[in-house]
Amino acid sequence: WILNYDIMARFRRRTCIILLLFILFICSIMMALKTLRPDRAGFGDPFGLGLLPELQQRIVLLDNKQNSLNRVQGDTVTRVSNLHSIAVNTMKASMPPVNKLEEELASPNYNFHIFYYSWFGNPQFDGKYIHWNHPLLPHWDPKIANNYPKGRHNPPEDIGANFYPELGSYSSKDPSVIEAHMKQMRSASTGVIVLSWYPPGMADENGEPTDDLVPVILDYAHKYNLKVTFHIEPYKDRDDRSMYHNVKYIIDKYGGHPAFYRHKTSTGRFLPMFYVYDSYVTMPEIWANLLTVSGSQTIRNTPYDALFIALLVEERHKHDIHRSGFDGMYTYFATNGFSYGSSHHNWASLKAFCDSNNLMFIPSVGPGYIDTSIRPWNNHNTRNRVNGKYYETAFSAALLVRPEIISITSFNEWHEGTQIEKAVPKRTGQVVYLDYKPHKPNVYLELTQKWSEKYRKEQEQWLM
């Protein structure tokens, strides 16, 4: 009996010691919590959850629920929970505000390139109308030309377009217009603006020089996380030498801007890209001087090397493009059946040719085509939009050939009716403009965004 008593006594002492140590441990934790200060929580939530706005919002919601519960459960738990809440709020205050722009707009797709024109002007910003007052172009056959009206359009009610822009007869220099355009292109989930470009002091025959506008466009593009590349137009005396100097000019002046587009090649290099409109006008031998390694005016393996994309119109152009040293081809025109290149059923064979010759094939899709406001005799090339079905058919055809890049003709080529920019119904005097009804003015932006997402998903399958 005495032995059992000793054993029980030792057990009680050991239990008391363990219990005392446990109480001391709990007290030390409580004291540590009591002496904590919010400014010691400088790193915010564990595991860096504060870097993720969505998770941060969930934490705040949980804290709010917890605070309601704490009012019932007692002051001690409330103090601990409040310390956590203060730490979260302190961390939130130290972070830059969440960019609402990024939350509201679709993410840019840098494999969707869209042709953009900055050649429009109005009296407020330019002292006169530019391009909106486009002349009516005569047919090359005088007998046919005599059957159609002549003269110029008279803005703002009468403009050189079959549709009417929501922004009116705007100036491309208007900062609010540039920003509206960037926001629209970003909402459409395009990523690269292909800017129509002439060298300094030069312009198309109906326009004014626009190179001085490039820095502003780059700045606004950067604000919307878009990139800018250049669509080099057929300026006067364009040849291998002038092209070398103009490419050098563009890269030297704009190449350091964060919105300047560079394309990652299969070899891992990041190179500028230039689309060359009407490239077929210049002989392949001239282009080869610039674009082949052995050329007399070669740009290859220099600081100004780039990817040069030629316009393919006729089937024979594909051999000339290859011989010239171009890196790829695009089709530009939004008129299915107008040319060999713009005909959807030819894209598979063109893609196969490009694949076998290490060239990029960039099909161009468009929502429709109508240019009778400036070429009244050209009805036969009109392509009805069919409430967006024409555009979707073009995208579907493009995706079938699995291109690395799809180009869109266009954001705002209003003269040829290929724009996806917002348009509104308008009737003035004798002019009744076409519109996007029964859909809203942004329907083609939404369709572009839809196909951008579809392209992303399909591209994941191609790469598997």
UniProtKB/TrEMBL annotation:
<keyword id="KW-0812">Transmembrane</keyword>
<keyword id="KW-0735">Signal-anchor</keyword>
<dbReference type="Pfam" id="PF16317">
    <property type="entry name" value="Glyco_hydro_99"/>
</dbReference>
<keyword id="KW-0333">Golgi apparatus</keyword>
<comment type="similarity">
    <text>Belongs to the glycosyl hydrolase 99 family.</text>
</comment>
<protein>
    <recommendedName>
        <fullName>Glycoprotein endo-alpha-1,2-mannosidase</fullName>
        <ecNumber>3.2.1.130</ecNumber>
    </recommendedName>
</protein>
<dbReference type="GO" id="GO:0004569">
    <property type="term" value="F:glycoprotein endo-alpha-1,2-mannosidase activity"/>
</dbReference>
<keyword id="KW-0378">Hydrolase</keyword>
<dbReference type="GO" id="GO:0000139">
    <property type="term" value="C:Golgi membrane"/>
</dbReference>
<keyword id="KW-0472">Membrane</keyword>
<keyword id="KW-1133">Transmembrane helix</keyword>
<dbReference type="InterPro" id="IPR026071">
    <property type="entry name" value="Glyco_Hydrolase_99"/>
</dbReference>
